[in-house]
Amino acid sequence: MLAKTFGICLRGLEGILIEIEVDVLSRGLPRFDIVGLPDTSLREAKDRMRLSFENSGLSFPRHHIVANLAPANLKKEGPGLDLPLAVAIMAGQGAFSNPFFEDTIFIGEIGLDGRIREVQGVLPMVISARKLGIKKAIVPVGNGPEAALVEDMSVFSFHSLGDLAGYLSGEENAAPISTHQCIKPLEVNHDYSEVKGQQSAKRAMEIAAAGGHNLLLVGSPGSGKTMLAKCMPTILPHMNMQESLEVTQIYSISGQLQSFEQLIKQRPFRSPHHSISNAGLVGGGRNPQPGEISLAHNGVLFLDELPEFRKEVLELMRQPMEDGQLTIARAIGSFSFPSRFMLLAAMNPCPCGYYGDLQRPCTCSALSIQKYRNRISGPLLDRIDLHVDVPRLSYREMVEPGRSESSYLIRTRVENARERQRVRFKTYALLNNAAMQSKQIKLFCTLSPESQALLNLAFRKQKWSARAYDRILKVSRTIADLAEADEILPAHLAEAIGYRGLDQKYFT
Hints:
Blueprint: E1 2-11, E2 14-25, E3 31-35, H1 40-43, H2 45-55, E4 64-70, H3 82-92, E5 104-106, E6 109-110, E7 116-117, H4 122-131, E8 136-140, H5 144-147, E9 154-158, H6 161-168, H7 199-211, E10 215-218, H8 225-230, H9 241-254, E11 269-270, H10 278-282, E12 283-284, E13 289-290, H11 292-295, E14 300-303, H12 311-315, H13 318-323, E15 325-330, E16 333-338, E17 342-347, H14 366-373, H15 378-382, E18 386-389, H16 395-399, H17 407-424, H18 438-444, H19 449-462, H20 466-482, H21 490-498, H22 502-506
Parallel strand pairs: 3-4, 5-8, 8-9, 10-17, 10-18, 11-14, 14-17
Antiparallel strand pairs: 1-2, 2-4, 6-7, 12-13, 15-16
C-alpha cells in the first residue's frame, strides 16, 4: 500500500519540503530500500525502524519496503526525517484510515526504544513549512515550545512512537501546544552605575546602542574597556517579535537553545576568544553551521584584544558587516545566514599597552608598535563608526563616592531614539540608523550650509574615505535622535567627527 508524509531539510535558514513516499509491497523477499540520495544517518534508519517498532509494541511489515525521498536530486541529511519515514511505514501497512498526510509536517529522530528524540533547527523548519502551506506540525516533546512560537500553525508533540500512533489512529486525543511559557527571561549581570568615570566612553556606548553603530575602544590595560563592553547589553533596546524569532532560529540550528526557554528576548552578546578559527567566526564546515557573527545577529559581537585575532579571520567580517548577510557556497549548495550585528572591539594602543599613558612610559619600539597596529587593516577600521580613547582612571576617580548614571536611564534614552528611527523607517526594511543606505542617507541626513562647511574642513584635514563620510552622517543622525532633534545641527555633526580621530592618532 502506498503512503505519503512530509519532512523538511534545511539549507541555512530556509527549509526544503521533502515528500516521503513508502510502498509496502506484498510480494518479494523482506527488504527495506531507501532511495532519493539519503545520507548515512538516513540509510542507518533501516535498523532503527525495526527495533523501535518492536520496542513500541508496533508491528513492522515483513515485506519489501521501498521508501522514496523527493526531490530526488537533493541530498537528504539529518535524523529529523526519521519520524515522517516511520509514520509513512505505519500508514503503508494500513494502520490509519488516510495514508496521505498532505497538511502535516513530521520532525524528529527515532530511538531504539521508540522514543522521539529532539533535533536541531525545528523553529526554522516549522517557519518554512508554514510558508509552504503546511498547517500542522508534529515534533518531539523537547522541541514543542520552540515550534509553537510559529503563528497559524497547530503544533503537537509526543514522547514516543507508540503515543503518536495512538493519536494518528484516533485512539488517543491530544491538544496543540500553547506559547505562554516559552519566553526566556532577561538576564542582567552588569550596570553602568558600577563603572567609575569614563563619561566620554559611556556617551559613545550610548550612541552606538541607539543607532546600532560599530565601536572601537582603545586604552591602556585596566582602564575599563572590558567592563564598559560587558555593560552594553543592559542599554540595548528590546527586540521585537520578528527580531526574536530571527535570533531564535539561528540558535535552534546551532543547538544552543535550552528546553522550555525557547524564545530569546535578550539581544545576543557574543565574546569569542582570539584563537577562534575562520569557520568559528563566520561559520562553515562540510554542512555549514552559523558562526559567531550570525550568533550575534541583532546583538553585539565583542572582540576583546582585537589585534590578537588573526588578520585573515578579521578580514572575513568585512563583507558581512556591510551586507548583514553571509552566504557560504559548498558543492551541495549555498547556505545563507543573517549577520546584522554591532561590532564592539577593544584593544591596547601598543604591545605593552602604555603608549600615550601619562603615568607609565611605553617600552615598545616603533617597529613593534607598527606591526601590532598593522594587524587591523584600513578597510576594517574604516567600517567602525566610533573610535574612543579610554584613559587610565586616577585614584581620585576610583574612590570618589556616589554612583554613576544607571543603565536603566541610559536605556530609556536609547529606546526613545530607536522609536524615532522606527517611525522614520516605517516604509523601509530598516531597524536603525546604521542600516541606512545611500538613498536613506540623502533623504534623512541633510546638512545646513554651516554643517557642510564644517564637514568639508574635516575631510580636507583628515583625508577620510567616502565610507567614512556616510558613517559620520549616520552617527550624526543618531546623536540628533538622542537630542530629540529633527535636523542634524552643527553640534551633532561636530561630535560625530570627534569620534573619528583615533584612526589618525594611532593608525597613521
